[in-house]
TrEMBL record:
It holds the Pfam family THUMP. Residues 44-155 form the THUMP domain. Gene3D superfamilies: 3.30.2130.30, Vaccinia Virus protein VP39. PANTHER family: RIBOSOMAL RNA LARGE SUBUNIT METHYLTRANSFERASE K/L, RIBOSOMAL RNA LARGE SUBUNIT METHYLTRANSFERASE K_L. This is RNA methyltransferase. PROSITE patterns: N6_MTASE (PS00092), THUMP (PS51165), UPF0020 (PS01261). Keywords: Methyltransferase, RNA-binding, Transferase. GO terms for molecular function: RNA binding; rRNA (guanine-N2-)-methyltransferase activity; rRNA (guanine-N7-)-methyltransferase activity. It comes from the Bacteria.
Length: 374
């Protein structure tokens, strides 16, 4: 049976996520603000959760109700038969986005929805679901838009960007979803060497290794919310997991990361070991001035520090000039991508860009700069 779904993603990555969904088999794919609508069957829902690299979570809309006031929201939530989606012995969480004039606080909106659901349970079953905000069995997503509320089942639970392999992070970690998106934008594949001279906790390179080895990121997850749904198909899910494990590859080109901070390098090595790819990615402590290409050609992707205050920016001028000099002198035959949130710093690189791509990194408007190095 074909069902409508909505995959949430970072602002600016909607087109990349749409392409990823299409590759996974989604139909009627249509981008929206911070998300993508698509259609597919239950198998596709499971597959997207298992394989999605740029997606936060996948929602299954179940109702759109009028919600101009708190009272109207409460009444219309109670008109839904929640026994189709939730059993009293299951724990529950409500997550809200959006607002209107009278429903302008997400926590208050969530309480209204929760009260309507548990009162219905109490009336018909004499027992109600407990609230669990940490690891609930069932998550209801509510999005307020004007005088309507879209209610959805969250099939994912904890955001997909938390792969589970990264208990250790650097000072300014890049989300796994964004790291994967950068690799897609760079059109990197498993035949091309990859290098990051500001690797931090290793996210870009680890995501690259997972992509190159065709490892489904969802394999690192312990559970998804859809496993608690009443129509959950255990055999179908197990078949997809078995298929994913059998499709993994074993060979990769050089994937190398360096960073000046030895403690962060140890974190990167720990993260690679956690997801069992430590023998495919090399991390070294090395100052930028000593950076050398690990192959004659390849793709360099990095996210150097870019400072929040003017004095921080000025202090980084020499670093960006050095980066430009190193690229020009040592990385001929490579393609370099630099993600930065500071236009003043980009001028210090001193190289002509062949492309500029707007990227939002954790609420900061950034630019991904592409350099063809000849």
């Amino acid at each position: 049976m074909t069902t409508s779904y909505f995959a949430t993603t970072s602002r600016g990555l909607e087109e990349i996520t749409a392409q990823e969904l299409t590759t996974l088999g989604a139909k009627e794919v249509k981008t929206d603000f911070t998300g993508v609508h698509f259609q597919g069957d239950k198998e596709l829902l499971y597959r997207v959760n298992l394989w999605g690299r740029t997606i936060f979570r996948v929602l299954k809309p179940i109702a759109t109700i009028k919600s101009q006031t708190p009272q109207q929201l409460f009444r219309n939530v109670q008109k839904i038969d929640w026994s189709e989606f939730l059993q009293p012995q299951q724990t529950l969480a409500i997550r809200c986005t959006g607002k209107n004039d009278q429903l302008n606080h997400s926590h208050f909106t969530a309480i209204q929805i929760k009260n309507a659901i548990v009162e219905q349970q109490q009336k018909y079953h004499k027992v109600r679901s407990n609230i669990d905000t940490n690891s609930p069995d069932i998550v209801i997503n509510a999005h307020i838009h004007h005088d309507e509320c879209i209610l959805s089942l969250d099939s994912t639970g904890e955001s997909l960007h938390r792969r589970g392999y990264r208990p250790a992070v650097g000072l300014a970690p890049l989300k796994e979803t964004l790291a994967a998106a950068l690799l897609y934008i760079a059109e990197w594949d498993s035949s091309i060497p990859l290098y990051d001279p500001f690797c931090g906790s290793g996210t870009i390179l680890i995501e690259g290794a997972l992509m190159g080895l065709n490892i489904a990121p969802g394999l690192y997850r312990h559970q998804f919310c859809f496993e608690n749904w009443q129509d959950y198909d255990h055999n179908l899910w197990q078949n997809l997991i078995d298929e994913a494990r059998k499709s993994q590859k074993i060979d990769l080109p050089p994937i190398v990361g360096t960073d000046i901070d030895s403690s962060i390098i140890k974190q990167a090595q720990h993260n690679a070991k956690t997801c069992q790819i430590a023998n495919h990615v090399e991390f070294f402590q090395r100052h930028l001035v000593d950076a050398t290409p690990p192959a004659e050609s390849g793709i360099l992707i990095c996210n150097p520090p870019y400072g929040k205050r003017l004095e921080d920016t000025e202090a980084l001028f020499p670093l960006y000039k050095l980066l430009g000099d190193i690229l020009k002198q040592r990385f001929k035959g490579w393609t370099a991508y630099i993600l930065t949130g500071n236009k003043l710093l980009t001028k210090k690189v001193g190289l002509r860009t062949s492309r500029r791509i707007a990227i939002n990194n954790g609420g900061i408007d950034c630019t991904l700069l592409k350099y063809e190095l000849y």
